[in-house]
Design brief:
Chains A, B: One of its GO terms (biological process) is protein ufmylation. The structure is a homodimer. By secondary structure, the first copy, chain A, is an alpha/beta fold. Chain A has 12 helices and 10 strands. In chain A, helix 3 runs parallel beside helix 4, helix 3 crosses helix 7 and helix 5 packs across helix 6. The relative contact order of chain A is 0.10.
């Protein structure tokens, strides 16, 4: 027979255990709902050198003479499209750097098969990638604003919404984002981002990792000025390595946390250099892991680009360049911290592939540095148009037709 | 007055709430003690392409023709010394790749000031780095074996224990580890690792990130064959950038998740290439983030190296090389997958620093590729010896004297 005293003791014991469990949950886990149990929000970045300051090592970049105004990072919004092996690490790096706002797009779920890349953890399997990412990122840095969209940007309605968020989803609602990062793993999604950014005149950066997991690249695209994704097929490093960078249906691509971590690292480094104005922003930086070879280059926009808006942006860019006095052009270039090195690749590769093999693998190719070739060749314009039964006047085609055309490629 | 019935009801309520709290902890957090709530251990790596297989994208490296025997990774042990910005990401990448065993060394605690680098989270502030890292890594991949040491390797007793664990802490207890990775942030710890590896003939890799956060490097050291840390001062890329790579007391070094992520990525990539035998293992790979410049090189051991065991390993290496028939040498080199390119750096740098500035900054320097200089110069042997009041016979000095000498440098 249990006495009242014994029961009261048991109640007290259980109450204590429950409090301890709740405290432990909030102290240990990274999924605590009550954000006050993590670090409080910080109104102003401080350079104070104390262990409790999450920004001390970033603000030190000013004292080291690298960045003039680090706090400016809080005013920027970056959209990350694709929150997989590269996109999730990209988002984490930007979050830890204290970016103002992140807009994340993905429609995938976390799977155990993703555990060979950084960021996601086994207990998140089954959650949507954007939901899981937001949860983790918020607990890492509550100062960052997050906006997530759990959808496929390539469907009609979603594409319209995607365009709207790129053009109006900045920190100041109604203003465009400052940069779009493509971290997707397929051609269709890249083309959708390309189409949107060409139409909006939105500067973006492309990233990619090869199917065999041992090469990757990043690329800066300034509509009208540099080659867009439709101006030239994606470039790949072709020394000893399979040329295919495009994800094929039904093929299980290999992936490595190393290659994806390096690509995310050089991508976000380029973002920081671009937004905070330090160093030389790369137009194209490749990573060949087999030989530790990092080709750089830049490519001008193609006047015959199949994208109508790209050609329109090129005209706009030419008009502005012509209007600008010579002196001003030089000054602005210096401000943008972008160094044009059209012919100084500065890198040589001892290729084990013969010139003939390269030619056979890539077909007619543009004038590229040794060791680089194109992933696929663009069909002749006339052939493509006639095959699709379209008129030459395809510049006036609707978005719907454009999407349909993309799917046929 | 509380009745027995009311008390019993309260006990049942509390018991249910406690169960729920414990279940929630295990479902949400990454710090669950009960590993059965995460994914079960896997006995044999499978190449099956299903969402629930955490190794499918790694095993795909075999199908892609990159790695011959990926499963071999489970037989290797890697020691990571320093679990900070580079070491923690290094350990995470190796964990996600399914390495057999990790031996972690660090004596620091997690601080909010570390949150600008990947891996640690704010709720871990105050925990020891090795404890926090093991917790997270175990939940990411329960197949990996972990051994952690929460101590400073540079004190006498700890150094002896460190040597013991390097020489006997392999997967098969009593066997040495397969590789030691230096991810420390100071000169003294690097010298301790160098001393231990020279004495043991243990192959290791060095890594480092500059104080201004925008450059870094990795280096492979094979005792007796390649330059050890005492053979030549650490090399830094000197184009436009401060030469100091050594952490100075009282200076708050800047750091970036990008640079540290890239350095960890190229480090672990080199580890995978070395252990699994694919691609070209780099002897030295630098990363200059300001200009996206990645110098490579190799350096032979210095016959005048101040480290007694280095000189001893050099003799041993020479003896073995001389004994080996010519044909065999070539074969073994191929097996090791290390390409010797003594004079083919393959990289040019358009330096904005004049030759005179480089010379002034680095003093008498070895024959290095353009754009690379040494971080500091070694004092003349006679001067150093007389200043310390030591005899020329310093090859017989004790470990204690060696440590004291290191501190004076």
């Amino acid at each position: 027979m249990t006495t009242v005293e014994e029961l009261k003791l048991r109640v007290r014991e259980l109450e204590n255990e429950l409090i301890k469990c709740k405290q432990k949950r909030c102290a240990e886990e990274d999924a605590c709902d009550n954000l006050t149990h993590h670090r409080p929000r910080i109104d102003k970045m401080s350079a104070e050198v104390v262990d409790s300051n999450p920004y001390s090592r970033l603000m030190a970049l000013k004292r080291m003479g690298i960045v003039e105004d680090y706090e400016k990072i809080r005013t920027y919004t970056v959209a990350v499209v694709g929150v997989g092996g590269v996109g999730s690490v990209t988002a984490e790096m930007l979050t830890r750097c204290g970016i103002g706002k992140l807009v994340l797009f993905d429609y995938d779920k976390v799977e155990l098969a993703n555990m060979n890349r950084l960021f996601f953890q086994p207990h998140q399997a089954g959650l949507s990638k954007v939901e899981a990412a937001e949860h983790t990122l918020r607990s890492i840095n509550p100062d960052v604003m997050f906006e997530t969209h759990n959808y496929n940007i390539t469907t009609m309605d979603n594409f319209t919404h995607f365009m709207d968020r790129i053009s109006r989803g900045g920190l100041q609602e109604g203003k465009p984002v400052d940069l779009v990062l493509s971290c997707v793993d397929n051609f269709e999604a890249r083309m959708a981002i390309n189409t949107a950014c060409n139409e909006l005149g939105q500067i973006w950066m492309e990233s990619g990792v090869s199917e065999n997991a041992v090469s990757g690249h990043i690329q800066l695209i300034i509509p009208g000025e540099t080659a867009c994704f439709a101006c030239a097929p994606p470039l790949v490093v072709a020394a000893n390595i399979d040329e295919k960078t495009l994800k094929r249906e039904g093929v299980c691509a290999a992936s490595l946390p190393t290659t994806m971590g390096v690509v995310a690292g050089i991508l976000v480094q380029n973002v920081l250099k671009y937004l905070l104005g330090f160093g030389t922003v790369s137009y194209y930086l490749g990573y060949n892991a087999m030989q530790d070879f990092f080709p750089t280059m830049s490519m001008k926009a193609n006047p015959q680009c199949s994208d109508h808006y790209c050609r329109k942006q090129q005209e706009e860019y030419k008009r502005k360049e012509a209007e600008r006095p010579k002196q001003e052009v030089v000054e602005e270039k210096e401000e943008e911290q972008i160094v044009h090195e059209d012919n100084e690749w500065g890198i040589e590769l001892v290729s084990e592939v013969t010139e003939e093999e390269l030619k056979a693998a890539s077909g007619p190719k543009p004038d590229l540095p040794e060791g680089i070739t194109v992933a696929y060749t663009i069909p002749e314009k006339e052939e493509a148009a006639s095959a699709a039964g379209e008129t030459v006047e395809e510049t006036e085609q609707s978005l719907e037709e454009l999407m349909a055309q993309m799917k046929r490629i």
